[in-house]
Amino acid sequence: FLGRYIRLTPCLAIVLAFNTTWMYHIGSGPFWDKIVGDEYRNCRKNWWVNLLYINNYYDFGNICMLHTWYLGADTQLFILALLLMFIIWKFQKHLKIIFGVCLVISFIVPGVINYIYDYDIIVRYYPEPLLRLMLDVNEFRLMYVTAHMNIGGYVVGMIFGYIYYKYKDVNLFTKKLYVTMWWIFIFVVPLTVVFVAYPFYQDNYEYSRIGAAIYTAIGRNLFAIAIATAILGATQKIGWFLRSCIIWTPFQILGRITYCVYLIHLSLIRIRIGQGRTPNYVTVYFLIINTLMDLFVSFIFGLLLCLLVEMPTSALQKLMLPEFKNKVKPHTYKQKNINISVISNDNQISKI
Asked: Mind giving me the DSSP string for 205-258?
């Protein structure tokens, strides 16, 4: 956990520092105080919440760097995963039962909470709530960004990680039928989860409390299972162009800086929108051009953040960890020397 915290926090702290100081003073516009000023004030108030990775729970209505709710949820689930790994290590014979119980819980919890609060079947992104980036929508705060609502993805990841660990030297897709089923599953399931929501946006849709709970319980978990299955297939050297994309060198290089891009991109978008002085006529061309521009600028600044902060921090961390291990090894070795076996008077070996 300490290694993870050291790896993630420096870049986050730099972006937080920028949002709480310089960002508000580098531009102007009729919407500047609304788009940028709100972020500036929230970050000055709650910057410490982000560094503790509890921003998806504490004072969410005034959250700083909204998109970092994921870092909070992921870190909380990481701690939970460490505890689960400890339990698995202590009770290895009951591995399947432990994973099965966790998987059932990850399906039940979202559905039960959705049913209790009687929320809609999906979080709906309409213009009015988006004006405040969904911060005033209780459904978004309780059903989307919390760790306990996203536990399914982590459990699925641990299960498939164990499957990979156990069968990494075994070919699981020995028949063409298995490969065909793999292709169908990894495309049909996630696309079904996404596009089945289309009728929910229609004016004639009739809301069902039980239906909403069922969709909430299985939707994201099925999506996670499909993605995990796709990754497992790639490790089994199937997947054709999908696997080629994963191992393609340029994508690996871009992948090294995606964390920095993720941290900084929303601040750059806020600056662009806040400086707007004329109404925009929204077309497909307009959206494509702005998306490409945001991607390009985000990757440029993400590269700088990666080179100046993330990579040096990672290098220092690697230098520190071997020293830490060297300090631990003598202690471990000493303990092993204590737990030796001796020969008793009757020549039977007994363990101290």
From this structure: ----HHHHHHHHHHHHHHHHHHHHHHHHHHHTT--THHHHHHH-HHHHHHHHTH
User: How many residues are recorded in the chain?
Assistant: 352
Amino acid sitting at position 23: M
- Our CA angle for 3, 9, 15, nearest 5°, is 160
* 178 closest CA partner among 223, 227, 239: 239
Distances (CA, A) of 136 to 51, 110, 145: 23, 20, 13
Closest CA to 217 of 138, 143, 125: 143
Nearest to 85, CA basis, from 9, 179, 154: 154
Maximal CA-CA distance, the chain = 95
Asked whether 98 and 88 are in contact (CB, 8 A), the reply is: yes
Alpha carbon distance 201, 177 (integer Å): 37
Contact of 105 with 150, CB cutoff 8 Å = no
Structure tokens at 169: 């030297």
For 105-159, the pLDDT digits (tens) are 999 999 999 999 888 887 877 787 777 777 778 888 888 899 988 999 999 999 9
Helices then strands, counting H and E runs in the chain, come out as 15, 2
The one-letter amino acid at 333:
Y
Q: What is the pLDDT of residues 226-254, one digit of tens each?
A: 999 999 999 998 988 888 888 888 888 88
Taking Cα atoms as reference points, which of 196, 208, 218, 204 lies closest to residue 121? 208
Q: Judge whether 143 and 110 are in contact, CB under 8 Å.
A: yes
Are 238 and 175 in contact by the 8 Å Cβ rule? The answer is: no
Task: Map tokens 């009951």 to a residue.
Answer: 94
Structure tokens of 156? 């699925």
Query: Which two three-digit tokens encode residue 149?
Result: 């609502």
Assigned token pair, 1: 């956990």
The 3-state DSSP class for residue 13 equals helix
Mention every residue, 6+ apart, whose C-beta is less than 8 A from residue 280: 286
One-character DSSP codes across 145-177: S-TTTSHHHHHHHHHHHHHHHHHTTS-S--SHH
